[in-house]
Fold this sequence. Notes:
Elements (H helix, E strand, L loop, with lengths): L21 H56 L5 H59 L1
Amino acid sequence: MSPSTASLKDGEVLAGGKVAPLRWLGAKVSKAADRLRSLATTAARSVRSLVSSAVDRVRAEVRSPVRLAKSVFMATIGKDRGFGFWWLMAMVAIAVAIGLLVAVLLSPVIGIVAALVVGIWMLIRRSRSARSRDTAMAGLAS
């Protein structure tokens, strides 16, 4: 067998005398992809187990303080939520609504005011730099 006509598999030669080792290349690529897939799967499993154990530890640490805060809150308001509790909830809801409304209405206004301030500052800065250039030119001329 000459170097120009190598066979793929027991005498498989393409037309024109050129050998296309596509099956060999495909097998190598497939093996490499399988190895890469298995490595990625192993890495993903290890990362998943690490994240899961970290979440479990955090959950175990946070669960008891949250339960304690809930029990204290429930002990203060009791099972019977009276007029004071609902009055407080209504006031909190109204305060949140007013706060959101003010934030939504003032944000564009604050943006416009900031743009005006920056524009005025740029105009003042430009006029000062023009005056300072004129002063510098007058100093060089004399």
